[in-house]
Amino acid sequence: MLEKFYSTPNVKSLFRSFILARRSRVEITHKTYFQVAALAVLSLRANCPPQLQDRQGWLRFIYCMCTFVFQLKQDGKAFDRTLKWGESYPYAFPLWFGPFICLFNIHHPDYVKTLFESTGEGLLVSQGQKWFRHRRLLTPGFHFDVLKPYINLMSDSTKTIIHNKSSKITMSFELFEPVSLMSLDTILKCAFSDNSNCQAESGRNTYIQAVYDLSNLISLRLRMFPYHSDFLFYISPHGFRFRKARRVAYRHTGKSLKRLPNINQTGFDQLWHLHKTACVHFFLHFCLLSHLQDEKQQGLADEDIRAEVDTFMFEGHDTTASGLSFILYSLACHPEHQKLCREEILQTLDGKDTFAWEDLSKMPYTTMCIKESLRLYPPVPATSRVTTKPMTFCDGRTLPKGCHLLASVFGIHRNAAIWENPHVFDPLRFLPENVSKRPPHAFVPFGAGPRNCIGQNFAMNELKVATALTLKRYQLIEDPTQKPKLIGRVVLHSINGIHIKIKPVHTN
């Protein structure tokens, strides 16, 4: 119906002139904007279900939209509202994003277990056999033996941010942006042997800004129901911004890809030797994987490698930056736990300036604090799936094929039926005897099942190293005037930033 609507001569003429005016930067009258907006509303109504076509249905439609915009506005309280709804619906409830998109919000471990353990284009969005093949070929790149050499690189990046913040002593400062630069610096070093020196850049990094814009626009498009139309989003100012940010992000990863040696020129055996001797790093493994083949003699094509590099660049810096920022904030708010972590870290390092691989397993209390922060502030607050066949949950209820599901990690981690005092920071929840009392899917910051985060060991190692070296050097202090206002933009962010104060730690 929409295709027929847009194909009428007057509508085509109006949209064509609107797009040309946008491209040529000609001033557009308010009348033209109003006409386009009116056509957008009419086109959405034309695509409404039959029951919404009459007058009463149209009024219900408008009421639904107004209610939705009010309830899920970006004011830092959307998570509080969904948690409140979860108290009335202990397993799941529907979230309507406009008249056509409904996400079935799941926030109970038993339901999430069914979702995560079911099997269904980067690893972030791949489907079916393509995903299985990619996962099988990529998994060796995240083996412990492969990850060991990167501890020193993680330490180097952390020391840079520690040095840069020495001028911020006793001052309140925003944490997320410098931590984003540190995590980007780490992934560039580990992935491409690229000493980008991005932490020394003046102004905001273009790639970080592009990722932030993309995340914000994806969230905006979901919340603004007219943008559910590909065409309307394409011609909108936000659509132009989205394509511009996407070009910037692709250009950045393209430059990084060029740093990888050509396997045909260098030779497989020579590359493998360099990799084993830690002369080159991590996603050089992509080059090796492009040479590997599965049982059907299929490897990763160039476009597959590009898709995975885009995924790991995003996942490797933005989610880690969110996780680490909230870990440091949590410890700043709870000095008693921060003190215990620092004592453990100093004992583990025993006078050393950096970490060895073996040291990471010697900080159980620090690890529990990291996990507790990931529980309260999961970097990816929700993940989505679409049912490809009917799905039956543990209580016998069934969803049909084609349903959009949203696994609310934030809701699961704060479910009062699972966690006692769920909003309280309590690292002792992760003592082995306490973990054994909970359902296995009560804590899922990296997902679970066959599609869990392939880089979770890399991420946990980076979080441990960065947290430990920061606490070794600085005491973290809460800024009570700047409480984070949480919002979900693909990755967990704060509208007003994440602010703390620091002061040096003097040790003998």
TrEMBL record:
EC number: 1.14.14.14
Superkingdom: Eukaryota
Single annotated GO MF: heme binding
Pfam families attached to this UniProt entry: p450 (PF00067)
Assigned keywords, A-Z: Heme, Iron, Metal-binding, Monooxygenase, Oxidoreductase
Segments forming a coiled coil: none
Protein name as it appears in the record: aromatase
UniProt organism field: Cyclopterus lumpus (Lumpsucker)
Lineage of producing organism: Eukaryota, Metazoa, Chordata, Craniata, Vertebrata
